[in-house]
From TrEMBL:
Domain of life of the native organism: Bacteria
GO MF term list: catalytic activity
Pfam families: Abhydrolase_1
Entry protein name: Pimeloyl-ACP methyl ester carboxylesterase
SUPFAM superfamilies in UniProt: alpha/beta-Hydrolases
The species this protein was found in: Streptomyces zhaozhouensis
Domain AB hydrolase-1: 29-261
């Protein structure tokens, strides 16, 4: 269930080495998938393979996440990730791909577009971090006390990470999936990286772009798990009201981690939007 998802390509970004992979035919229409926090491209594995039947799919682990570089002093903020995404689009020579972004990745895609000139043919946002205020009580507690949490014994840290990731799912995660999502945050490299990314997750990075959402001039579709306990479904309606002509799909039975909870329903919604007539290539 968790085998066969390794990113073999690398790119030396301004925030460290990025692991990435391309699936599908080189001549097919391009689709780029962005993960959120504290996840990795692994959450997109099934949907990426489904799109790769008739698309050229790009997946990547952001600096500080998954299989990409993690090191002391690393800038893994939303500001840095937005810049790195624009770098990658240039590296891949993609001028106007289809883009689907989850959670923190939604803010990354929005920043790259609104602040760094990245162009997309269509943009799908899945339970995105996009509106103030954000950050659960746990997230804020850890962010304000990272120096304390970094000192947790490895077994307690591991239990905390697994429990935290579990709460992103509505029906619950398969144990093997949970372990795969938790593993990058364990060990001498992973433990400090987990707290580093939380410490740098500042709301000001979405505050900088929130007032620009009404200026978005591309097709945008929002997908949201109705049972999302991390970001309430009310935010889906709020965000849709701010973006001109944005459309919205609410997905029953899904929590925040929609890719794991209802992959078939999410794949259907994304394919319907991203491959709309005249917009797939």
């Amino acid at each position: 269930m968790t085998q066969g998802w390794e990113l073999s390509e690398t790119y030396e970004s301004t925030s460290g080495r990025v692991r990435w992979q391309r699936l599908g035919a080189a001549t097919a229409p391009p689709v780029v998938l962005l993960h959120g926090t504290p996840f990795s491209s692994y959450v997109w594995r099934g949907i990426a393979r489904a799109f790769a039947v008739d698309h050229r799919v790009y997946v990547w682990d952001m600096p500080g996440y998954g299989g990409s570089a993690k090191f002391e002093g690393q800038d893994v903020s939303l500001a840095a990730q937005g810049r790195v995404f624009r770098e990658l689009l240039d590296h891949w020579e993609l001028t106007e791909p289809l883009v689907a972004a989850h959670d923190f990745g939604g803010a990354v895609a929005l920043r790259a577009h609104l602040l760094h000139g990245a162009r997309y043919r269509r943009l799908a946002l899945v339970d995105p971090v996009a509106l103030a205020p954000w950050g659960s009580p746990f997230f804020r507690l850890v962010g304000e006390n990272t120096s304390v949490f970094e000192q947790l014994p490895p077994n307690l840290h591991g239990a905390l990470v697994r429990e935290y990731i579990t709460t992103a799912s509505g029906p619950g995660l398969h144990p093997a999936v949970l372990e795969r999502l938790a593993t990058p945050w364990l060990g001498d490299e992973g433990q400090p990286a987990f707290y580093r990314q939380i410490a740098q997750a500042e709301q000001r990075f979405t505050d900088e772009i929130q007032e620009r959402y009404p200026s978005l001039d591309l097709p945008v579709h929002i997908c949201w798990g109705e049972d999302d306990t991390w970001i309430p479904v009310a935010r889906a309606h709020e965000l849709a009201s701010l973006i001109p002509a944005a459309t919205l799909t609410l997905i029953p039975g899904a929590g925040h981690l929609v890719q794991e909870d209802t992959p078939a329903e999410l794949t259907a919604a994304l394919r319907t939007f991203l491959t709309a007539a005249g917009n797939a290539g």
